[in-house]
Specification:
Number of helices: 9
CATH superfamily of the largest domain: ACT domain
Helix content: 25-40%
Distance between the termini: 22 Å
Order of helices and strands: EHEHEEHEEEHHEHEHEEEHEEHE
Largest sheet: 6 strands, mixed
CATH architecture of the largest domain: 2-Layer Sandwich
Strand content: 25-35%
Shape: elongated
Structural class: alpha/beta
Radius of gyration: 21 Å
CATH topology of the largest domain: Alpha-Beta Plaits
Number of strands: 15
């Protein structure tokens, strides 16, 4: 099975993909939009994307792409994030003058830079890509900050392990597949619910007990209260709610909600009810909670 990821081989997304689908063939992509395009075209069977970090929060671009593309979340996975200083063989920690990595990774390793003031943090496009770069060019005074997967992939040497500030650092990943027939914001005036999305039932895994949706409410008094009440009335627990700006509609917002039910009658009734009060509803996925 071909599975697309954003980033280089050896990245945390690569590790998550192999943990979720042990015998998959990983297809690295430079941009997130390319990942979703590959799923849409069918050149890959699925994709694994990071959606949220326990410290940095939601990956905004991926949240937006889930709403605008016809994909369906089939599974989630929580990966423990451990950052390591990785350099070309023969390079010593004392020789380092800069450390390259993704800006989010650098931000999660502030204590390391505070204790090593002679090492400059340098933003790079990808964690694993930083290791690939310093090893390929055999830079004598630079290292990348990434996971152990990257050290193995590019034959780098770990100079210092587990440098992240918070050891309770996790990233939540989604496994997504192509889907059709899901109501979404392409026609924002049209209301949608689970019943208007016949294309996704075949993608729901056995034992699914968690649902992710996106919806938009009209800017009227009590609109959000009415939307959330459809879950409270049925004793459905929300594990997350977040709003994001809606592209092309300034000062309008999409709400993202995760709730702890699968494809059962209370959940379907809640979504039908939500479709009556919301401007649109999109079911992003129904899957087993990690």
């Amino acid at each position: 099975m071909k599975v697309a990821i954003q980033g280089e081989l050896g990245s945390f997304s690569h590790e998550a993909a192999e943990r979720m689908l042990p015998r998959c063939s990983v297809v690295p992509c430079a941009r997130s939009a390319e990942v979703f395009d590959r799923v849409r075209r069918g050149s890959v069977a699925a994709a694994v994307i990071p959606i949220e970090n326990s410290l940095a929060g939601t990956v905004a671009e991926h949240a937006d792409l889930l709403v605008t593309h016809e994909v369906f979340i089939q599974a989630e996975f929580l990966l423990h994030i451990v950052h390591n200083v990785i350099a070309a063989p023969g390079v010593k920690l004392s020789a380092l003058r800069k450390a390259l990595s993704h800006p989010v990774a650098l931000d999660q390793c502030r204590d390391f830079f505070r204790h090593h003031p002679h090492i400059e943090p340098v933003p790079f496009y990808d964690t694993a890509g930083s290791v690939k770069h310093v090893v390929a060019h055999r830079l004598p005074d630079a290292a990348g900050i990434a996971g152990r997967h990257a050290a193995r992939e590019y034959s780098g040497k770990i100079l210092q392990a587990s440098i992240e500030d918070d050891k309770c650092n996790f990233t939540r990943f989604f496994l997504i597949r192509k889907s059709t027939g899901i109501a979404g914001p392409a026609a924002p005036q049209r209301k949608g619910s689970a019943d208007s999305a016949p294309g996704y039932q075949r993608l729901i895994p056995r034992g699914a007990n968690k649902t992710s949706i996106a919806f938009k409410v009209k800017n009227l008094p009590g609109a959000l209260f009415k939307s959330l009440s459809v879950f409270a009335l049925r004793d459905i627990s929300l594990s997350k709610i977040e709003s994001r700006p809606m592209r092309g509609r300034p000062w309008e917002y999409v709400f993202y909600v995760d709730f702890l039910r699968g494809d059962d009658e209370p959940a379907r009734n809640a979504l039908r009810h939500l479709g009556e009060v919301a401007e649109f509803v999109k079911v992003l996925g129904i899957y087993r909670a990690a």
